[in-house]
Amino acid sequence: MTGVELLIVALVVAVASCLQGTIGFGLGMLSAPVVALLDPTLLPGSLVLLAGALTVLGVLRDRTAIDFRGTGWALLGRVPGTVAGALLVAALPPRVLALALAATVLAAVGLSALGWRPRPRPATVAVAGAASGLMGTATSIGGPPMALVWHGTSRARMRGTMSAFFLAGAVMSLVALLAVGSLDGRTLRFAAVLLPAMVLGFALSGVVNSRIDKRVVRALGMTASALGAGLVLLQAL
């Protein structure tokens, strides 16, 4: 990856981290298509590492609003989903994973646009947790299923609860990816280089939270994600 390409990725990671700090998810959804275009072999490990660090910041900021009961049900489903996602990463070539990533993003954007909002019952949250584990481990995009079931909560509660869930989920995903040999020194170095951009984006989300309607931010993020996924799809095909 050239210096210019790395700068572009860092900028996207900063924007995506700001989006996640504002609405509770978005790092993988916005960043993964860009990384997939430039070097799909760095996925999903590099973004799962960044997501883990980002969720630590989110938990610390919104810790008083976390719904621990809901997080527990979601994590119950996350375990089998994570195992399935790790097996997919080990079995499928980067091109197929890129196609899966693009399809995941486009499906999430489509469901959001249609306004589908399942009720957050324990069984529904557990199923969403399983889907999030599968998608998050295989493609680094695990936010959409949880956003669908927790959309009706307050902004702080949604951010805090999703951060707690994604923190535990990121640890699970990293252990699973390590077990199947999908984490290496190159992936770790790439994540470390992007860490300052992630921290900057999260810091900016504090300003955005108080000044911009979350619906505007969400719409911009979804649009950018759909465009990125479309480019990945065209390249993979």
UniProtKB/TrEMBL annotation:
One of its GO terms (cellular component) is plasma membrane. The keyword Membrane applies. The chain crosses the membrane at residues 42-60, 72-91, 97-116, 164-183, 189-209, 216-236. Belongs to the 4-toluene sulfonate uptake permease (TSUP) (TC 2.A.102) family. This is Probable membrane transporter protein. It comes from Kocuria flava. InterPro entries: TM_pro_TauE-like, TSUP. It is a multi-pass membrane protein. It is found in: Cell membrane. Pfam families: TauE (PF01925). The lineage of its organism: Bacteria, Bacillati, Actinomycetota, Actinomycetes, Micrococcales. Its main location: membrane. Keywords: Cell membrane, Membrane, Transmembrane, Transmembrane helix, Transport.
